[in-house]
Specification:
31% strand, single chain, five-stranded antiparallel beta sheet, eight-stranded mixed beta sheet, globular
Length: 436
């Protein structure tokens, strides 16, 4: 049984929008040409539509024991999926487009984080960890390959240093694993702060989602069918000559969905659900239909304008002075070195949103080179977040979690750091697993 029965309405709805465009275009064209034929001296100002920008939005919500699909949200409900779709219908001078499109003919590609290995897990890691390949998250770091199992509980990990074939087990408590976690944090921070949606894409077997993550397969299939309906209605030949060439362009759907770690829909807060944000763009590439799917970072990872706003607020003059005080820095030379380190580390800083009681806060992991040494600073701080670009740092809220800086105090890693990093790894597993 489909998870979202009502989503089957979507293709007909988008096809109807495209059909209305074609009807309006033909009506205006008939009227304009009719005026010319009736009085050749009259030059009508309009002879056809010059395209249209179309947008729609729909929700899937839980009402009692029912899952409801609707295009307007007029009453308070628990939304489990919020989707917006935008596309353009534009005139076209090219008459070599396919006259019909089918969802089964669309080739799919997905953009994955560059540090996540998407290929087969090597047998050596499976033997070392004693679990199936499906339970292993394989990460590529500058230092080598890291394989992780069950990061949210009794985490097991195996490590293959770069340039070697040897694989060994490591524990969470080891100093080596802490170095690897910091390296992973830097890789994620660099990815989150970059234009990750423009990265290279790899082929995706959409049919495999039917067994791995049925709800995503259902959503993707409906979105693809909707594009096909809009495309086919736009290029369809009419019963007479009152047709101008047109096509669908820039079709893009943005989806926010609450899932459980097993890939099923989270209808409540049980089972540690997570939010998945993804986009799917569909269009013709070299005469054949293709989709490009991008999975955005988990919601507790600050990205985009918010990532920048949080770091700018934290590294204000007052924020930097409080950071220095918490590190026990009093010499001006060391303060200048601290500011230089922070400014150099901002592009790859990882910001994990948290909540300390009722206070919005964040755990920030900085990493940058000082001379020949790779140094890290991990701190937590409170923030007043009013919008993605309106963030205020909260004074007297900075706490140093870890520092390997060659100046100031150097506290040992605290349990908070381990806990948040394990949560990050667990989210990575869920987040990548829905499409792998």
């Amino acid at each position: 049984m489909p998870e979202f029965p009502g989503i089957a309405q979507l293709p007909a709805a988008l096809g109807g929008l495209a059909r209305q465009y074609r009807a309006a275009d033909q009506s205006i064209l008939r009227a304009s040409l009719g005026a010319i034929l009736g009085d050749p001296a009259v030059a009508p100002p309009v002879i056809g539509l010059n395209g249209a920008n179309l947008r729609t939005r729909f929700f899937i919500a839980v009402q009692g024991n029912r899952v409801v699909f609707f295009f307007r949200r007029d009453t308070p409900v628990r939304v489990v999926m919020d989707t917006s779709i935008a596309f353009r219908i534009t005139p076209s001078d090219v008459d070599v487009r396919p006259r019909s499109a089918m969802a089964d003919h669309i080739r799919h590609f997905v953009v994955c984080p560059p540090f996540v290995e998407t290929g087969a897990v090597p047998e050596a890691f499976i033997d070392a960890l004693g679990v199936a390949a499906s339970q292993i998250l394989l990460l590529r770091l500058p230092e080598g390959l890291l394989a992780v199992v069950r990061p949210e509980a009794d985490m097991r990990a195996a490590w293959q240093p770069a340039g070697t074939t040897a694989i060994r087990r490591i524990t969470v408590e080891s100093s080596e694993s802490f170095v690897l976690v910091l390296s992973l944090a830097e890789a994620i921070g660099r990815w989150v702060s970059s234009r990750f949606e423009e990265a290279d894409a790899i082929p995706l077997d959409i049919t495999g989602l039917a067994s791995r993550t049925p709800v995503l397969h259902e959503i993707f299939h409906s979105l693809c069918q909707a594009w096909c309906e809009a495309w086919n209605e736009t290029v369809a030949a009419g019963p007479d000559a009152w047709n101008t060439a047109a096509e669908v362009r820039d079709y893009k759907a943005s989806i926010v969905l609450r899932l459980r770690p097993d890939g099923s829909v989270a209808r409540d807060d049980d089972g540690d659900p997570f939010q998945l944000l993804l986009t799917i763009a569909i269009g013709m590439v070299d005469g054949s239909p293709q989709s490009r799917i991008v999975v955005a970072p988990p919601d507790f990872l600050a990205s985009g304008p918010l990532h920048n706003a949080l770091l700018v607020a934290l590294n204000s003059d007052d924020g930097a002075s409080e950071t220095a005080a918490r590190l026990g820095i009093s010499w001006q030379d060391d303060f200048v070195r601290l500011r230089t380190f922070l400014l150099g580390a901002i592009p790859t800083a990882l910001v994990l949103r948290t909540r300390d009681g009722g206070q919005e806060s964040a755990l920030v992991i900085y990493s940058a080179q000082i001379g020949a040494q790779r140094c890290a600073l991990v701190l937590s701080s409170g923030f007043d977040i009013r919008g993605d670009d309106d963030v205020r740092w909260v004074p007297d809220s900075i706490r140093i979690v870890h520092s390997s800086l060659p100046f100031g105090t150097a506290p040992l890693p605290q349990p908070d750091l381990v806990r948040y990093c394990l949560r990050l790894l667990a989210a990575l597993r869920d987040w990548v697993g829905v499409l792998r």
